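Structure in, sequence out. Go:
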């Protein structure tokens, strides 16, 4: 028994900010950003919220899957930028779409969040604890960027992607690999607000994303090919059997290095970071939705997916579409 993705959806904020737009407000250039990252533009939220974009992506995924909100009995949102500490983004989505029968919760695995949600939902489906799961990766990263730090703020964007999952007789999720390395957490971090109780009385400071870009690059180009290779082998396949690699969209150089290490042509690694930037947990489901809506994904095709990022965390899956 497998777990199948039966529908996808996504939502990006209305406002597009190009590299040239950023160059008007900080000391950067289209040349610097696009040659080092492949990013040309990103969508940034003005009125949009993490839960609002999640609900919009969820509605599209449910329509694509042919299910109603009443059918959904599990909602998991991977996010590090929920609108509230409580209620969770997943509970807000539940209320917005009217999924009264669902249990809903968020998980924090940064850029691997959607992939972690996929594996958790797979476990719920396979044990019979739920029948139709809605999983979402959603971020409003622009609110946790230090807009005075040009080395990080130009890399990220906002948006949400969703998928509806059900148990299937054949195909679906063939293998999964998941890992964490908390000892390297400081490589990519964002502090929460500092304590301000009557005993401590420290000034309340807000955390912003801090990244050691070169360490992240080293981590990604080593761990992702290893994790993908393990997963593909566990699925009983070879790298050449995989039609597409739908990978977290951090940086074009990471995608090129992974393609080289796996010895596959770059055409098999679709790209959305050129127009979306890096949207952490939302990157993989938005890419998958774009591939689905372009008609790239045909029944029986093999798709390898991988998320990697803060924690550090990583997760890969091989699916038969
Ligand atoms: N515009 C112009 N100049 C800049 C900018 C900018 N936006 N940002 C930094 N610079 C300057 C720096 O000040 C520095 O100048 P200096 O040499 O005079 O001091 C110079 O460019 C080089 O800075 P580095 O930070 O060393 O830049 P690097 O060449 O390492 O490139 C990058 C940075 C693209 C992030 C690179 O480290 C990388 O590819 N990292 C991969 C990881 C990644 O993409 N992470 C994103 C998110 S993490 C994730 O999703 C898992």
């Amino acid at each position: 028994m497998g777990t199948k993705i039966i529908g996808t959806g996504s939502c990006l904020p209305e406002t597009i900010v190009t590299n040239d737009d950023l160059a008007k407000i900080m000391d950067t250039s289209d040349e610097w950003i696009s040659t080092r990252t492949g990013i040309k533009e990103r969508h940034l939220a003005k009125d949009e919220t993490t839960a609002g974009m999640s609900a919009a992506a969820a509605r599209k995924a449910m329509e694509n899957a042919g299910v109603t909100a009443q059918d959904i009995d599990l909602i998991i949102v991977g996010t590090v930028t929920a609108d509230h500490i409580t209620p969770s983004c997943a509970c807000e989505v539940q209320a917005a779409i009217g999924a009264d029968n669902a249990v809903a919760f968020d998980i924090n695995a940064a850029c691997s969040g959607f992939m972690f949600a996929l594996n958790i939902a797979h476990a719920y489906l396979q044990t019979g604890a739920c029948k139709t799961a809605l999983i979402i990766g959603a971020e409003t990263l622009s609110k946790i960027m230090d807009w005075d730090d040009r080395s990080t703020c130009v890399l990220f964007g906002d948006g949400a992607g969703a998928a509806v999952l059900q148990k299937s007789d054949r195909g679906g999720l063939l293998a999964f690999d998941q890992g964490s390395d908390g000892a390297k957490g400081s490589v990519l971090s964002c502090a929460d607000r500092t304590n301000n109780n009557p005993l401590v009385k420290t000034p309340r400071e807000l955390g912003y994303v801090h990244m050691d870009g070169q360490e992240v690059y080293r981590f990604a180009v080593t761990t992702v090919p290893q994790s993908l290779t393990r997963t593909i082998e566990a699925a009983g396949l070879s790298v050449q059997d995989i039609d597409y690699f739908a990978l977290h969209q951090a940086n074009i150089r990471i995608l090129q290095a992974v393609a080289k290490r796996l010895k596959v042509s770059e055409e098999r690694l679709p790209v959305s970071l050129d127009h979306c930037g890096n949207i952490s947990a939302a990157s993989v489901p938005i890419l998958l939705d774009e591939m689905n809506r372009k008609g790239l994904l045909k029944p029986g095709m093999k798709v390898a997916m991988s998320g990697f990022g803060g924690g550090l965390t990583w997760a890969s899956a091989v699916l038969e579409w």
